[in-house]
Amino acid sequence: MPVIMENKQARWRYHILATWEAGIVLTGQEVKSLKTGHGDIRNAYISVRPAASHGKRRQRFEALLINAHIPPYTKAGPLPSYDPLRPRRLLFHGHELMAMMGKIQTAGLTLVPLRVYTLNRRLKILVGLARGKSTIDKRATIRRRETERELRRYVLKRKR
User: Fold this and answer.
1) How confident is the model at residue 53, as a pLDDT?
2) Mean per-residue pLDDT for 5-27?
3) Could you tell me if residue 145 is inside a domain?
4) pTM for this prediction
5) Position 149 pLDDT exceeds 80
6) What span, in angstroms and rounded, lies between the C-alpha atoms of 38 and 103?
7) I need a surface site. Which of 80, 99, 106, 113 has the fewest CB within 10 A?
8) Cα 82 to chain centroid, rounded
9) Among residues 38, 2, 3, 1, which one has the least CA distance to residue 114?
10) Is 147 a domain residue?
11) CB distance 30 to 84 below 8 Å
12) How far apart are CA 160 and CA 23, in angstroms?
């Protein structure tokens, strides 16, 4: 599972409560651009909205990746109407979308992209249900990271 992009700021800004894996609907040029390592999901988020209804079926929802920057593939010709920030549709199972809708409606929760990776030659995205961290939580994270770093140094020093 080679990771193409990772949103490291998401784990710093949010508590990740649950994760889901989804496919992404992309053009060929966007896939090539991502596989060469270009793209940015740091400021991206996922929006779940009602899909266009077809007849008297029950309400369906669709998930969109908003504000993800995927530049055009450099070796391809110029595309006159290409928008690198266009919303991209995410492919979830219906029951996953319903579960997300129930959890998102809780105050203070949002969906953020955590990483984009390849799985069996397909591009997948890991989506996390997140609650924002306060500055106190961020300080605790820094403190824990520094303690772990000191412990590793101490262990390495003792081994010599």
Assistant:
1) 67
2) 89
3) no
4) 0.81
5) yes
6) 32
7) 80
8) 22
9) 3
10) no
11) no
12) 48
- Phi–psi pair at 149, nearest 5 degrees: -65, -45
CB 5, CB 40: distance < 8 Å? yes
Integer Cα distance of 112 and 47 in angstroms: 9
Do 123 and 5 contact (CB within 8 A), yes or no? no
**C-alpha–C-alpha distance, residues 21 and 91, integer Å:** 9
The per-residue pLDDT for range 87-123, each reduced to its tens digit, is 999 999 888 888 888 888 877 888 999 999 999 889 9
User: What's the CA gap between 56 and 59, in Å, rounded?
Assistant: 9
The CA distance from 33 to 86, in Å, is: 15
Paired strand residues for 3: 117
Distance, CA of 121 to CA of 107 (rounded, Å): 37
CATH number of residue 66's parent domain: 2.40.280.10
* Coil, helix or strand at residue 93: coil
Query: How would residue 57 be classed by pLDDT, with cut points 50, 70 and 90?
Result: low
User: How many independent structural domains does the chain possess?
Assistant: 1
Residue 139 one-letter amino acid:
R
Residue 56 has pLDDT above 70, yes or no: no
Residues in the chain: 160
In a domain, 69, yes or no: yes
